Amino acid sequence: MTENKKRPLIVRIGKKLRPWFNKAIASGSCVSNAPLLENSIFPWVEALEKAAPLIIKEFQGVIAEQGGVPPLRELSPDHKRIAPDNSWKSFFLYGYGIKVPENCAKAPVTAQLVAGIPGLCSALFSILEPGGEIPPHNGVTKGMLNCHLGLSIPKDGKNCWIKVSNYTLHWQEGKVFIFDDTYNHTVQNNTDEIRAILFIQVERPTRGFGRLVQKLFLGGIKRSAFVQDAKKNIQRWNQLQALLEKA
Questions:
Q1: What is the 8-class DSSP label of residue 163?
Q2: What is the CATH number of domain 3-246?
Q3: Residue 67 above 80 pLDDT?
Q4: 206: Cβ–Cβ under 8 A, 6 or more apart, which residues?
Q5: The pLDDT of residue 11
Q6: What pTM did the predictor assign?
Q7: Dist CA 61 CA 71 (whole Å)
Q8: Rounded distance, CA 61 to CA 109, Å?
Q9: Positive or negative CA dihedral for 218, 223, 229, 234?
Q10: Residues 6+ positions from 86 with CB-CB distance below 8 Å
Q11: What is the pLDDT of residue 1?
Q12: pLDDT at site 68
């Protein structure tokens, strides 16, 4: 049986077990299970904010290159539901613990900084084009927390926002906020400028049985087609860009 035939069964089983996994992880959480979390819980946030000018400089270098940043839907077909067009773009440094060496070489300071974050899962430059929208959705696991560092924020900041549960948040350049993406959330950029952030996912601090379940679930995701397909697509994109640069 081919991987494509196995995949729907794996997805169906995963969806059925996910509420149980999330409940177990939440019960073992060392931090709040609320939608928003305090930055002070995570010592690395302060260092990230202090380094923001250097990160912004590297981001600007990345988007200035030929080819720019690829649409997320081209890298990860599983995201097509929440990335229905090309307005959401992503430049991966790490994806579920897998390093993208070519991309890290283009943003070495940022790559070194995120590599030192305990429990790092993913780190990427995330761009939402003018008029872009990410429809309401819920993250797959309680085992990760999302961190956003503002890099390029529209002047009309009031019309560029993310809603997490009942909270509406606005990005600020060089500032971080952290949230639990298993709560329903949606993003809109109703401006004529791009919104760019350093998007980081880290393991939720957990203990006991909850940590065991967390490791099991995240390990399964890393080995799944969801991640492996994205890894192959990123490699293909980078190979194509390298050929274009030589042409």
A1: E
A2: 2.60.120.330
A3: no
A4: 25, 28, 29, 30, 143, 214
A5: 53
A6: 0.91
A7: 18
A8: 12
A9: positive
A10: 71, 73, 74, 129
A11: 34
A12: 76
pLDDT at position 13, please? 55
Phi, psi angles (nearest 5°) of residue 156: -85, 65
Show Cβ contacts of residue 179 under 8 Å, excluding neighbours closer than 6 positions: 35, 36, 37, 145, 146, 164, 169, 185
Which residue do the tokens 């790490």 mark? Answer: 94
Cα-based torsion angle of the residue sequence 107, 111, 113, 115 in order, rounded to the nearest 10 degrees: 180
- Both tokens assigned to 224: 């799944």
Distance CA(92)–CA(86), nearest Å, equals: 16
User: What is the mean pLDDT of the segment spanning 183-204?
Assistant: 98
Cα separation, 111 vs 57, in Å, equals 13
**Locate tokens 């305090």: which residue?**
38
From CA 178, how far away is CA 95, in angstroms rounded?
18
SS3 62: helix
In angstroms, how far is the first alpha carbon of the chain from the final one?
41
Query: Residue 208's CB: how many other CB atoms inside 10 A?
Result: 11
Domain ranges of the chain: 3-246
Radius of gyration of the chain measured on its C-alpha atoms: 18
Number of residues in the chain: 247
Record the tokens describing residue 155, joined without a space: 């002047």
